[in-house]
Amino acid sequence: MNKNIKRVALLCLMLMLSFFVFQCHSAKEISKTVNDKTFTLTADLKGLDKAFLVYFEKNNAYPDGVRRDTIWVKDGKFTFTDSVNDYKLYFLNVLNTRSWETEYNGRKYTSSTKADVNRLWFIAYPGAEIKCSGKVEEYMVDASLSDGRGVNQDFTRIQEKTFPLIDRAHALRFITYTEDLTEEESKKLSDSANALFKQAIDLKKEFAKSNPKSIAASYVFMDGYYRKYFTHDEAKAVLEGFDTETLDGTPFYDEVNQRIAAVENTKLGMQAPEVVTNNTLDGSEFKLSNFKGNYVLLDYWGTWCGPCMAEIPKIKEYYQKYSDKNFVVVGVNSGDAVPKWKKTVEDNGYNWEHIQTTSENNLLVPFNVTSFPTKILIDPAGKIIYSSNNATKTDMYAMLDAIFKKG
User: Fold this and answer.
1) What is the pLDDT of residue 102?
2) Which domain holds residue 296?
3) Which site in 17, 50, 61, 315 is 20 to 30 Å from 350, CA atoms measured?
4) Which of 275, 270, 267, 264 is nearest to 300 (CA)?
5) What is the pLDDT of residues 33-66, one digit of tens each?
6) In total, how many domains does the chain have?
7) Residue 189 lies in a domain
8) Buried b / exposed e across 152-188, counting CB within 10 Å, b at 16+?
9) How confident is the model at residue 7 (pLDDT cuts 50, 70, 90)?
């Protein structure tokens, strides 16, 4: 009996030790997974006298569509940690922009210069230890960044060249908005500001061309393509110059690659690309190809977009006008918090199909949507027959009338 008790006790002890080892191993694995996705930015900015900064990020999962993080600052020093799955651009609003008040129709409005050089920009990636040192001036962050892969060293090089130019351009623009100048004086300052902006853009374009293996250059290129710094042919040439072995599979390179391909693949008469998402009003799967046999109007919109909201009543009118025909409208929302998007649809009786683009599933890329509103009309065979981005302007509503009245 004693032997049996000893055996049972020994077995229990072995099981407990195995469980403990398993738990420790699991904890290490979990910790390793978390750490592998975590980056840390350690900053020291002379002249930064704020007690804290707030990190803002658009995120539709939050009730108001914005994720916020408080970053505590002491003597200009702070640390920011977050988790990422891949290379990702971050910016922190550090300084105020140049702002002024204007009055129109008896109401006062606050205007400001663009929020760019007053921010701290950096590129994070899993496991990155990013160091930042520098100073803050009245309206500009003058910072030097570094990390183990050299990504932010590259990013610093282009910022050091362009930020002073952009800051001077903003200063000139500010004078034209706030001081009592003659028309000639105002034009002279505006021309000088535009020349500085162009100089900064040219430097960014050259940076993208001259650094074919750089993650930072691929971001600068993607951003410049979105902002139309490049013609389509210029962009194709820059893209062909990038080192695909180094950059293929990285997010900035992949997005601009897909956008440039989309221009080639979504011309009038071409087959529309597939669009698949579960970001629908009820969470069910949406597939664009399921609507073959119908005329499908894709309407890219957001509640923040005045022209979008101004045109939606016309969309609603035509949806109701031809809802008994083979006519489908798909609203593609961008930039709204999920609750606001759904409430706007429900409150206004937008009773057509609705999907939403997100950072995880960017529905703007397949058709290279860069402005709002954008409208794409697809015929029953799945071919694109209208695009508001087309250089030749056509009246889409007259086209719809011709299609359905003839039918």
Assistant:
1) 85
2) 276-406
3) 61
4) 275
5) 445 899 999 999 999 999 999 999 988 778 888 8
6) 2
7) no
8) bebbbbbbeebbbbbbbbbbbbbbbbeeeeeeeeeee
9) low
